[in-house]
Design goal:
It is built from 2 helices and 3 strands, in the order H-E-E-E-H. By secondary structure, it is an alpha+beta fold. It has a single domain, classed as 2-Layer Sandwich (Ybab, Chain: A), CATH 3.30.1310.10. GO terms for molecular function: DNA binding.
Length: 84
């Protein structure tokens, strides 16, 4: 039982460190930053692009940022040594 409590405490610490992780993706002047809780922290659009282009690029940036942060967090979990 105490082992489970210890694992829970370790997971809570890990969750806090994950929140500090950030990934930024930039494509053609459109910039997206998300954190380890998958919250969008920043979006910058490009005035040089039309609305349709910005929407498509924004979607690409969000998807790429999500994939990158997932990979980063998975690597950190694997290297943490916590056994479930």
């Amino acid at each position: 039982m105490f082992e489970n409590i210890k694992k829970l405490q370790e997971l809570k610490k890990m969750q806090e460190t994950f929140k500090q992780e950030k990934v930024t993706v930039e494509k053609r002047g459109v910039v997206v930053t998300i954190n380890g809780n998958f919250e969008v922290e920043e979006i910058k659009l490009s005035a040089n692009l039309g609305l349709d282009e910005q929407q498509n690029i924004l979607k690409q940036c969000l998807n790429e940022a999500r994939e990158k942060i997932q990979k980063t967090l998975a690597q950190k979990m694997m290297s943490s040594g916590i056994k479930f």
